[in-house]
Amino acid sequence: MKALAPLLFVGLLSAGNPHPLFSFHSGFWINLHHFLYEQAFLQKPGRRPRGIPERDSALLAGLSGKDKDDWTAAVAYYAQHFSGKDLLFDTGMVRIKNILEDQDSTAQLHDLFLPAGMASVVNAVAQSYRERFWPAEDAANHRWIDRTSHLVATDGERVAGDLAQLYKTPWPGEPIRVDVTNYASWSGAYTTIDPTRITVSSTDTANQQLAGLEVVFHEASHALIDSIAAAIDEACHRQQKTLPNPSLWHAVLFFTTGEVIRRYHPGYVPYAYKNGLWKRAWPMYVGPLEREWLPYINGETSLDTAVARLVRAV
Predict the structure, then answer these.
(1) For residue 263, what are the domain limits?
(2) For tag attachment on the chain, is the N or C end more exposed, with fewer CB atoms within 10 Å?
(3) Are residue 201 and residue 251 in the same domain, yes or no?
(4) Are residues 115 and 181 in the same domain?
């Protein structure tokens, strides 16, 4: 299969935003890294990450000879060194991710400050991954990029402007890098900061169609939310309140992005509602958000008033 272009810039250019909003990538090495991480994760009893197709297990089972030995060694290396580490919260994993993203789809993985032995075991399986898995995975990534980039080109400037205004924080001056992979952690997407980079799964069923638009703007909002989190902390201190769950700021982020997308697509069901996140994670927050935060999103009250009422309500 002919290799597909690894990079696509998407976003409308204007005097206020001279740069595209996002740069989408389908990089070979970051995809292989996540593939191996998930395969090692599968070694644990009872684990089944989201979006792992049966095809992968069948193709891996069909390996023989040196290819099989190399894969066994690579998965064992990942199981030993990485399977207990979170892709988002472990600083070492974030550093590895950034290094692999920067190498995109080079012919060989270079050992640039990677953990000892990692480049060797990954390079050993690169050719069989390139032949057996990468054509289908790269094509899936680009299909997702094509659909999502079209939505960003249509709605992105308005959505970015709304979110920046609601969070009282300017949109980043440079495009936010989005690495599209078949597997992207247990959650289907995650964002690392300094620099802000998004990793999103092209195959996760929760990330498809309009939900893909919400996901990339939700993830980008992690770079904008600090002022809201600080306002919540200040309101808690002022009211002498202790939150029932400390991640109210994240619930606000989910709620806000979903409502902004729904503003331009009436009838759209936001991610947290459709996927049962309110019931699983924040049943205590969804009602207060609907009553006290939605008026702020709709321009009916000030930020200070909305935050104070929200903290009081929860």
Answers:
(1) 226-313
(2) N
(3) no
(4) yes
Angle between helices 303-313 and 248-264 (to 10 degrees): 120
Taking Cα atoms as reference points, which of 110, 137, 106 lies closest to residue 36? Answer: 137
Provide φ and ψ at 47, rounded to 5°.
-90, 135
Residue-wise pLDDT tens digits, 72-106: 999 999 999 998 899 999 999 999 999 999 998 88
Nearest-5° angle of CA 141, CA 142, CA 144?
A: 70
For the segment 144-171, what is each residue's pLDDT rounded down to a tens digit?
999 999 999 999 999 999 999 999 999 9
Query: For residue 295, what are its two tokens?
Result: 């008026």
Inter-helix orientation angle 248-264/210-220, to 10°: 140
Token duo for residue 260: 């902004």
